[in-house]
Amino acid sequence: MRKVLTIARKEFSSCFHSWLGVLMAAFFFLASGVFFVVLVLGYSKISMNPQQYGLSNFSGINQTQYILGSFFFNLSIMLLFLAPILTMRSFAEEKRQETLELLFTYPLSDFEIVAGKQLGILLFFAALLLPLSGYLAVFRSLGGEFEWAPVLLGFLGFWLLGSAYLAAGVFISSLTKSPIVSALGTFSVLLVFWIFDWVNDIATGRWARIFSELSPLAHYKNFTLGILDVQDVVFFGFFFFYFLFLTLRSIETRNWKS
Amino acid sequence: MNNPEPSSLLRFENVSKKYGAFHALRDVSFDIKAGEIVGFLGPNGAGKTTAMRILAGFFPPTSGRVFVRGIDMFQHPHEAKRAIGYLPETVSLYPDMKVIEYLRFVAKLKGVPSYALHAHVRSRMSFCGLLDSGHRLIGRLSKGYRQRVGLAQALVADPQILVLDEPTTGLDPTQIKEIRELIRALGQNRAVILSTHILPEVSMLCDRVMMINQGQILASGTVPELASCLKDREAIHIRILDKKDQELALKILSSIPEVEVLKTEEEVRGETFISFETSPELDLRPRIMKLFVEQGISLAEIQRQQLTLEDIFLGLLKNGQFEGQVS
C-alpha cells in the first residue's frame, strides 16, 4: 500500500508541477465559474418575469434543480476535454521518456503501478472539484438557496463520471508512446460514449434501452436530478474497474512485445 | 529452492527470448558469483540489452529460468528484484523531479523503511558525488550527472547484484574514468554485470568476459584465459599500394595452407589492406614477400601483430565459434 501511495503522490504532484496541469486547473475553475454565473443570471431573469418565458407559474421551477442540475450537466461537457488531457501523460509520457522501464524493474507489481497512477489522477481530479464549492459559498452568501443533498449527489456523480472517463484515458495512454495520440484517442472514445446518449434519444424499444444502459451520461443524469440509484453507482464502478483491468493487461504486453 | 550452487548469486538456465519470430536470445546459461565483475561483450543487436532486461526483471524470458540468490525471478519477482539494481542503457529519469526527490521516491518503492530513508538516500548521493546537486532538477543535469543519478538509483536499497547496461556510453573521458572507478569499487563485494561494446573497457574492468552474438554466448572466460588461447595466434597485416594487385595477392595468400581468416580491410586512397591470422611459430613474412615480389605486386608494408581482444571477437563473430574453445 505504501508503494501505491508513493506512486500516487508522485503522479499527483507531477500534475501540479507541469504547466499543463496548472493551466487545466485554472481553465476548469474559470470555465465552470462562467457556467455557474450564466446559469444564476439566467435563473434570475426568468424569475423576474416567468410569463415572458412561457411559464405561467414560477413556483414550478426548483432553484436547486434549475441552477445546479444544469451546472453539473454542463460540467460533464468539459470532462470530454479534461479527461484526455489529464490522462494523456500517465503512461504515454513515461513510455516516451522510457522511465517506465526502471519502474518495472523495481520490486513492484503491475497492479501497484497501475493503481498508484490511477489513484494519483483521481486525487488530482478531486482537487479540481474542491474550488467549485467556493461558488456555492458565494451563491449562498448572496442570498441564493439550495438543498445540500442534491448538490452533494451532483458532486458525487460528477466525480464518478470523471473517474470512469479517467480510467478510460489511462488505458488509452497505456497503448501509445505519444501523449497527443493518447489525448485524441481518449477524446474519440469519450465522444462515442457521448453519442450513445443521443442515440438513446432517437432509438426506440429495445435499442433505446441498450443505449441508455451503456451511456455514462444517462446514468449521470440521475445524479444531476438528485436521484441516487445503486444501478448508476454500479455502472460507474464497473466502467472504472473494467478499464483498470484493461490497463493492467496492456502493460503486461511488454512480456511478449519488443 | 532448487539451486544447486549456493555460492552463485545469479543463474541463467537455458534462457531464450523471442520477439515474434525473432530470436533475441537462444538457450543462454551461466552463473555469476559475488565479487565478480562480468562483462557482456557484443555488437549492437547481439542480445545484450535483452539479457540485461531479463536480469533486471523487466520482462520474463520466453523459456528457461532465472534464479537470483536461489529465488526464481518470475515466480517470486518481489524478493528477487529487491536484490537487483539496474542501470538501463538510456538513463531515463523523470526530468521534472529534483535529484533528492527522485531518489527518495525510488527508495520508498524499493522498500527502504521510512526511518532510514533520509540517511540512506544521502549516503547513496555522497557515494555518487551528488551531494551538491540534490536540489537540481534532473532535466537540467548534464549527461554525466544524470548517469550518476542513474547509478545512485541502482544502488538504493543495497542490491547485491548490479546490472549496468553500457554504463559509459555518451560520457566524456573524465566521466568515463570516474564511472569505471565507481564500478570497480562496487564490484568488491557485489556481483556486477555490465554490457559494453568498448573492448578495452572489458580488459580494464572485468574479471570475466562473455562474448555474445546473435543471442548466443560465443565464449566466456577470464581475460587472461581468453588471452592464453591467443598465444599461438598472431595477425599479419599487409598494405598494397595498387588496388589492381589485390585480387592476385589474395589468390597467392589463399594458396598458402597456414593462412587463416583472410580478409581485406578498407581502402584508403587506392591502397588496400589485407590481414590474416596464422601461427607465430612459422614466420610467413619472408615467404610472402618473395612471392609478392615475383608476381610484381606493389607491396608497401608487411607487419605482424599479437591478436587483441578485438581480433578474437571479430574472429568469433565470423566463424560463429572459437577454436581454442574457452568456457
What structural category do the secondary elements of chain A indicate? mainly alpha
Quaternary structure annotation: heterodimer
The largest sheet of chain A, given as strand count, sense and whether it forms a barrel, is: none
Helix coverage percent of chain B: 25-40%
Tell me about the biggest sheet of chain B?
A: 6 strands, mixed
Low-confidence stretches of chain B: 1-5, 321-327
Description:
The complex is a heterodimer of chains A (258) and B (327). Chain A is an all-alpha fold. Helix content of chain A is 79%, strand content 0%. In chain A, helix 3 (63-87) runs antiparallel to helix 9 (179-202), helix 6 (110-129) crosses helix 8 and helix 6 packs across helix 12 (230-252). By secondary structure, chain B is α/β, with parallel strands linked by helices. Helices cover 34% and strands 28% of the residues of chain B. In chain B, strands 6-7-8-3-9-10 form a 6-stranded mixed sheet, sandwiched between helices. Chain B has a 4-stranded antiparallel sheet with strand order 2-1-4-5. In chain B, strands 12-13-11-14 form a 4-stranded antiparallel sheet, with helices on one face. Residues 1-5 and 321-327 of chain B have low confidence and may be disordered. The chains are: A mainly alpha (258), B alpha/beta (327).
Please give a quick description of this structure.
The complex is a heterodimer of chains A (258) and B (327). Chain A has 258 residues and is an all-alpha fold. Chain A contains twelve helices and no strands.
Key descriptive features of the protein:
heterodimer; A: 258 residues; mainly alpha; 12 helices; globular; B: 327 residues; alpha/beta; 6-stranded mixed sheet; 4-stranded antiparallel sheet; 14 strands; disordered C terminus
